[in-house]
Design goal:
CATH class of the largest domain: Alpha Beta
Pfam families: PHP_C
Largest sheet: 11 strands, mixed
Number of domains: 2
Protein name: TIGR00375 family protein
Helix content: 25-40%
InterPro entries: Pol/histidinol_Pase-like (IPR016195), RuvA_2-like (IPR010994)
Number of strands: 17
CATH topology of the largest domain: TIM Barrel
Order of helices and strands: EHEHEEEEHEHEHEHEEHEEEHEHHHHEE
Shape: globular
CATH architecture of the largest domain: Alpha-Beta Barrel
Strand content: 15-25%
Structural class: alpha/beta
Oligomer: single chain
Length: 387
Amino acid sequence: MHNYYVDLHIHIGRTASGRSVKITGAKTLTLTNILHDAVHVKGLNMVGIIDCHVPEVLDELERGMEEKGWKEHDGGGVAIDSITLLLGSEIEIYDEHCQGPIHVLVFLPTIAAMRTFSAWLKKRVKNISLSSQRMYGTGRELQAFVKQLGGLFVPAHAFTPFKSLYGKGVKKSLTEVFDPDAIDAIELGLSADTEMADQIAELHRYPYISNSDAHSLRKLAREYQVIRMNAPTFAELKKALRNQEERAIIANYGLNPKLGKYHQTTCERCFKPMSPREKRCPSCGHHRQIKGVFDRLKELKTGGTPPERPPYIYQVPLEFIPGLGAKTYEKLLARFGTEMYVLHQATEEELKQSVGEKLAKLIMLARRGELSIQAGGGGKYGKIASE
């Protein structure tokens, strides 16, 4: 058994030919660049590419197998040098039972299975070559087909105000939209941690995963998990999500929820914090608000005793550290190899030698979860105090 660093929610911005996939994704977010940075910058062992339903992306994977020696694992997933690529897709559900759109993640074991899924999905979306397309069908219909293909089904960033299960997707329960027995995990999603999510009793039966939802290379592995598996394959991941045969999620690493873009409730116009009970913003008088994840989960709280779970360890990505710019970031990578090593293993003395006492102290405080944080909300990330 080994422990693997895993990030299961990474977008493709452009195909090899330069065609847009995730419109809001960076142009540099190509499959080649993702694989390079995941290994050599971030230190990941497994990545979920969630735009693999796009035919041109599948073509690129097959070319890699023909020309570069990439191979499919016997247990599912594509072995590419020292990393495993899991074939995923992000889809938007908005049927008659939804209050608002809901994003979900689908993972399939093989390229052939994803080809079959892509052909099925093409009949139900407007543009199969783009990411996160709205599917014209029900959530249960999607779940049933994914399970026919031996896949995994995960509600994505389940608590953010927009396009999520508990944001505006359902009134109270996931059973309004989905078959609860056909859900394999819940993605926490940048504004919630384990303790916050466990306020909802119907979630106690599911494992939690924490992923980056990367729209740029720098955002890779801003959230991830460490998973104990015999090998980095689809089949092993499936066992780990079910806690079978000693496979398991060992720890979730993610942002302190206060650093998330939607932690606190804010005014829709001026983005100043406000109480969800206030009908008008005390700062500008506007009558609409963006409800934060913290307040939304208080509304949905149902009690119950949660199961024993792996620790959720607050991680502050290096880009959040005040005063740590691009040149300093490159200096750290040149000295220590990967961001994982800087965040979790480099000693304070080693950091001082590389970036000076002040930045070294901030990185160590971040590692211990002792930084002062100004909470984010309304689409703006939280901030770290410089002292």
